[in-house]
Amino acid sequence: PLSMSFANIGSIYPPTVGADPCVRPTPVRRTTAGQIIVNMKDLPSYNRHSIRLKGYDYSNAGCYFITVCTQDKISLFGDIQEGEMIENEVGRMVYYWIEKIGTKFQDVQCYDTIVMPNHIHIIIQLMNHDTNKLSFIIQWFKTMTTNAYIKGVKGNGWQPFYKRLWQRDYYEHIIRNDHEHEMIANYIKTNPQRWIEDCNYTE
Q1: pLDDT single digits (tens) 68-87
Q2: Please, is 195 exposed, middle or buried when counting C-beta atoms within 10 Å of its C-beta (0-12, 13-18, 19+)?
């Protein structure tokens, strides 16, 4: 994983990290028939709420801001419409497996989550500072979503991906205090409103 600097939180990737992961939104192939991977009625409510960490001791448990992008930054998870992210079946599948992280790993919580057309943002809290475990969690998430996507390609005609669904690396930033958490949580919440700006895309 690559550490992330927040000297410039106005863009998805600050200049110290690398290129902006967004690209011009590409048309999303939507299924017209067939069974989706999961029954949406059985899904837990998406955990997109913001935790209130006032008085939280950041020295006792690690909070990390995580960004994971699709391979070649291809838009597969939905569309931005009027500043709002509209997930397709693939995007809802990704949310499903984000929810499963807290079930699979008992000492892990996911907060302030958003699935964008070609990347995701999550605040992950580890009750220990085991960064090796963080890497394992992200790899598990990539594996589960990739397997689910392959099933969707075969069963529902989802748009095939080339070689791999996710980029090999992910981007992490340690959240060190309440102010920083509040700033990042707001950044995640308002991410869809900056989609065109972040992508340097104009009609």
Answers
A1: 999 999 999 999 999 999 99
A2: buried
